[in-house]
Amino acid sequence: MRKIVIAIDGFSACGKSSTAKEVASQLGYSYIDSGAMYRAVTLYFHQNYVTIDNPKEVSKAIDEINISFNFNERKAFSETYLNGLNVEGEIRKMYISEQVSRISAIPEVRKNMVSQQRKLGKKKGVVMDGRDIGSNVFPDAELKIFMKADLTVRAERRQAELLEKDQLIPIPEIEKNLVARDKMDSEREENPLIIPDDAYIVDTSELTLPEQVEYVLQLATEKM
Ligand code: C5P
């Protein structure tokens, strides 16, 4: 069987990462969370007071950033490292979610991240989730999935995830963030969130995680 690239895009909090990790784990593929890369950049910019409308300052900051992942294939568990430090917990916090779409829209940031993502997927055998993976990072990906779900369902799932990390965020606040991010991600100039023509659209509102995984695995097997 040949190794393929599986691109999973979609709106915020539709279950992309959970599905992608499990699919990668079951196929023995690597998993790349492209959203975590933009979140790590956002954390770095926040910590270092980078002025985002100064392209020179932005480019200098990007050069100082090294992002890596530790994907535990057996446990389907991924951790993000920023300059050697585990930032997995920090990048999921609300203050990062509130800034990330502004940072990810900066052309210098996108150019750099997209180039890193292409390198990470060059050898195939990769599942990558994000917003522009099937449309821009890997337009030739053998399998493209686009996920969507009802807003309330998404907010409830995200609230449960945050609660597991001891963060209690009210549903309206989460919904506001999801709507704002979807809008900014869809309307930005560079690599906006779009549905690729050749993507399989999956509405996860009434699907369980095992059902989502099963569906993607079935499609993947057909493409191998
Ligand atoms: O996937 P996650 O919700 O963690 O992504 C956080 C943010 O990163 C998105 O809202 C979007 O602004 C940005 N992003 C992006 N392109 C990707 C993945 C994420 O612009 N491929």
Report on this structure.
The chain has one domain: P-loop containing nucleotide triphosphate hydrolases (Rossmann fold), CATH 3.40.50. 42% of the residues are buried. The strands form 2 sheets. The chain has a 5-stranded parallel sheet, sandwiched between helices. It contains 11 helices and 8 strands. The chain is an alpha/beta fold and 224 residues long. Cytidine-5'-monophosphate binds at residues 12, 34-35, 38-39, 100-101, 104, 130-133, 181, 185. Its EC number is 2.7.4.25. Keywords: ATP-binding, Cytoplasm, Kinase, Nucleotide-binding, Transferase. It catalyses: CMP + ATP = CDP + ADP; dCMP + ATP = dCDP + ADP. Residues 6-221 form the Cytidylate kinase domain. Belongs to the cytidylate kinase family. Type 1 subfamily.
Q: What secondary-structure arrangement, pairings included, does this model have?
A:
Layout: E1 5-10, H1 16-27, E2 30-33, H2 34-47, H3 55-63, E3 67-72, E4 77-82, E5 85-86, H4 88-91, H5 94-97, H6 100-104, H7 107-121, E6 126-130, H8 133-137, E7 143-148, H9 151-164, H10 171-187, E8 200-203, H11 209-223
Bound molecules: cytidine-5'-monophosphate (C5P).
Residues 12, 34-35, 38-39, 100-101, 104, 130-133, 181, 185 line the site of cytidine-5'-monophosphate.
GO molecular function: ATP binding; CMP kinase activity; dCMP kinase activity
GO cellular component, one term: cytoplasm
Binding site for ATP: 10-18
